[in-house]
Write a structure and sequence with these properties.
- The protein is α/β, with parallel strands linked by helices.
- It has one domain: Rossmann fold (3-Layer(aba) Sandwich).
- The protein has eight helices and five strands; from the N terminus they run βαβαααβαβααβα.
- A five-stranded parallel β-sheet has the order 2-3-1-4-5, sandwiched between helices.
- The longest helix is centred in the middle third of the chain and has 16 residues.
């Protein structure tokens, strides 16, 4: 069974929906961000602060490559990982990529109290610019679903319908 990769901006619901999708499909769930934190023995926030974003991005890509070589996983990617064109192509070649779309307003609402997301420290105009830039690559996904104003279960049902078409 090929992998299913979930991409989208931070706060879109990739991890929550990924766990539900894995459970429903009998696949294993993996959250790349959590796997990177485990392998590096530090949080993403600590990696950004102590080693820099470039270090984290490399660790993230290396971890994803481990799962691209395997199958039977629902993989939740970090927001930046899914916005990397090269990684997008590799994911599409080894499975189905699903973009969980969400508005910037929903993201800001969901993440407003989250102190562990380094990119939330960007000025709002820079965050919006990053959001728009990443959407260009996310749009290359095989399937897209919108999660604004929907429960995770509703998003899951929509994904299942689209996968089964």
């Amino acid at each position: 069974m090929r992998n299913i990769y979930l991409v989208g901006f931070m706060g879109s619901g990739k991890s929550t929906i990924g766990k539900l999708l894995a459970q429903e499909s009998g696949m294993k769930f993996v959250d790349i961000d959590k796997e990177v934190e485990k392998s590096q023995c530090m949080s993403i926030k600590e990696m950004f602060e102590n080693l820099g974003e470039e270090y984290f991005r490399k660790a993230e890509k290396d971890k994803l490559m481990e799962y691209i070589k395997r199958s039977g996983f629902v993989v939740s990617t970090g927001g930046g990982l899914g916005a990397d064109k090269g990684m997008m192509e590799l994911m599409k070649n080894s499975g189905t990529v699903i973009w969980i779309k969400v508005s910037i307003h929903t993201i800001l609402s969901r993440c407003k109290n989250d102190q562990d997301r380094p990119l939330l420290k960007l000025p709002e105009d820079k965050l919006l610019e990053l959001f728009e830039k990443r959407k260009e690559v996310y749009s290359l996904a095989n399937i897209s679903v919108t999660s604004d104003d929907k429960t995770p279960f509703q998003v899951l049902q929509e994904i299942l319908q689209k996968i089964n078409r």
